[in-house]
Amino acid sequence: MNIALIGYGKMGKAIHEIAKERGHEAVLIIDADNLSDLTPENIRKADVAIEFTSPHTAYNNVKFCLENKVPVVCGSTGWLDKLDEMKALATEKQTGLIVASNFSVGVNIFFEVNKRLAQLMNGQSNYEVTLKEIHHTAKKDAPSGTAISLAEQVLEELGRKDKWVNEESAQPGDLSIISERIDPAPGTHFVKYSSAIDDIEIIHTAHNRTGFALGAVLAAEFLKNKVGFFGMKEVLNL
Ligand SMILES: NC(=O)c1ccc[n+]([C@@H]2O[C@H](COP(=O)([O-])OP(=O)(O)OC[C@H]3O[C@@H](n4cnc5c(N)ncnc54)[C@H](O)[C@@H]3O)[C@@H](O)[C@H]2O)c1
């Protein structure tokens, strides 16, 4: 498969390695120093684009790919207020789009465990729930996209919580997400239910970026020749 890599930082490079191992070729690599190479002619050489840049640049890059009818896998976090617009554009252009706050297989299994635990806890009002995430200090957004996904899953299932807040909160309806920035953590997420009697906590710890990179390449392989919006749940058949 011919892929375009948009963003060639830590993730772009890790994805390139895995893509090569799986027999794919990067026919276009775009980073901040060669943005002028991101032309309609160049992007159309790719079967799928993989976008890992930043919260401020992802929207324009995803839009550019879809407008040129190139399916796109986007891992950049912090821009999801524009996601619905991009889902509509994918449908309009009859092109594929995958956006995931976290591409790792382990985290996507963790998401399913999180949903189930929240369902079980819905009737157990003695338990207070909090979320925590720890990432490296270069991370630009807080809370992490993964923590937001975990929080939204909890809010969906747990009637006693109304909204997430990125601080410790004493308001009963608030779901607190605590963000810590410590090097060299690639990403740890905690969901903790505490009562006077006991605690139940689920934790996912990424050891390196390989899991995210492999998941992004699996998503690109899944997306080739598909139309519409998909998540990692579909890619991994969870
Ligand atoms: N979804 C996931 O599984 C997952 C996993 C890790 C990181 N991320 C997210 O992916 C993004 C990138 O992470 P990273 O660790 O590779 O960051 P990074 O800072 O190492 O790399 C980002 C790269 O994008 C380049 N860039 C900036 N503007 C650009 C533009 N307009 N076009 C093309 N390239 C541009 C930068 O020069 C840099 O090399 C972040 O938003 C991060 O939160 C997501």
Automatic annotation (TrEMBL):
Pfam families: DapB_C, DapB_N. One of its GO terms (molecular function) is 4-hydroxy-tetrahydrodipicolinate reductase. Coiled coil: none annotated. It catalyses: (S)-2,3,4,5-tetrahydrodipicolinate + NADP(+) + H2O = (2S,4S)-4-hydroxy-2,3,4,5-tetrahydrodipicolinate + NADPH + H(+); (S)-2,3,4,5-tetrahydrodipicolinate + NAD(+) + H2O = (2S,4S)-4-hydroxy-2,3,4,5-tetrahydrodipicolinate + NADH + H(+). Keywords: Amino-acid biosynthesis, Diaminopimelate biosynthesis, Lysine biosynthesis, NAD, NADP, Oxidoreductase. The keyword NADP applies. Transmembrane segments: none annotated. Pathway: Amino-acid biosynthesis; L-lysine biosynthesis via DAP pathway; (S)-tetrahydrodipicolinate from L-aspartate: step 4/4. Belongs to the DapB family. PANTHER family: 4-HYDROXY-TETRAHYDRODIPICOLINATE REDUCTASE 1, CHLOROPLASTIC-RELATED (PTHR20836:SF0), DIHYDRODIPICOLINATE REDUCTASE (PTHR20836). This is 4-hydroxy-tetrahydrodipicolinate reductase. The lineage of its organism: Bacteria, Pseudomonadati, Bacteroidota, Chitinophagia, Chitinophagales.
